[in-house]
C-alpha cells in the first residue's frame, strides 16, 4: 500500500510520535513507554511513519532508534499555504467591505 504524509499526520498517535522525535531521537521501547497502547500498535505506527518518509530507523546494537526526517512535511505546508492565501484574501475582502459599510 502506498502511503503519503497526509496519512501519517491523520492519526493523533503518529502526530504525537512526530512531536516527540522532534525533541530527541528515541528507541522503539522509549516511544512505546510513552503511550497507553500495545507495543505492536506502536510498531505499526512507526512502520507507517517510515513508509511515509517521516522517520528512518537506525540500528545500534540491539536497539533500533527512530530518527526524524521531516522534509516530507513540506508537502503539508505547501497544501496548507494555498488555503491560507485563499482565506486571507477572502477575509481581507470581508474586512474592506465591512469597513466601507461602517463609513456609510
UniProtKB/TrEMBL annotation:
GO molecular function: DNA-binding transcription factor activity
Domain of life: Bacteria
Alphabetized Gene3D superfamilies for the sequence: Winged helix-like DNA-binding domain superfamily/Winged helix DNA-binding domain (1.10.10.10)
Domain HTH arsR-type: 1-88
Record CDD domains: HTH_ARSR
InterPro entries per the UniProt record, alphabetical: ArsR-like_HTH, HTH_ArsR_DNA-bd_dom, WH-like_DNA-bd_sf, WH_DNA-bd_sf
Pfam family, one: HTH_5
NCBIfam families (UniProt xref): HTH_metalloreg
PANTHER family cross-referenced by the UniProt entry: SLL0088 PROTEIN, TRANSCRIPTIONAL REGULATORY PROTEIN
The protein's name: Winged helix-turn-helix transcriptional regulator
Organism this protein belongs to: Mucilaginibacter mali
Amino acid at each position: 500500500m502506498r502511503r503519503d504524509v497526509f496519512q501519517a499526520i491523520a492519526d493523533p498517535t503518529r502526530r504525537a510520535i512526530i512531536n516527540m522525535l522532534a525533541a530527541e531521537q528515541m528507541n522503539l521501547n522509549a516511544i512505546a513507554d510513552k503511550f497507553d497502547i500495545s507495543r505492536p500498535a506502536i510498531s505499526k505506527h512507526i512502520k507507517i511513519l517510515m513508509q511515509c518518509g517521516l522517520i528512518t530507523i537506525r540500528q545500534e546494537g540491539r536497539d533500533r532508534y527512530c530518527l526524524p526526517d521531516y522534509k516530507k512535511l513540506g508537502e503539508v505546508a505547501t497544501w496548507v499555504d494555498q488555503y491560507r492565501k485563499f482565506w486571507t484574501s477572502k477575509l481581507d475582502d470581508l474586512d474592506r467591505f465591512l469597513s466601507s459599510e461602517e463609513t456609510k
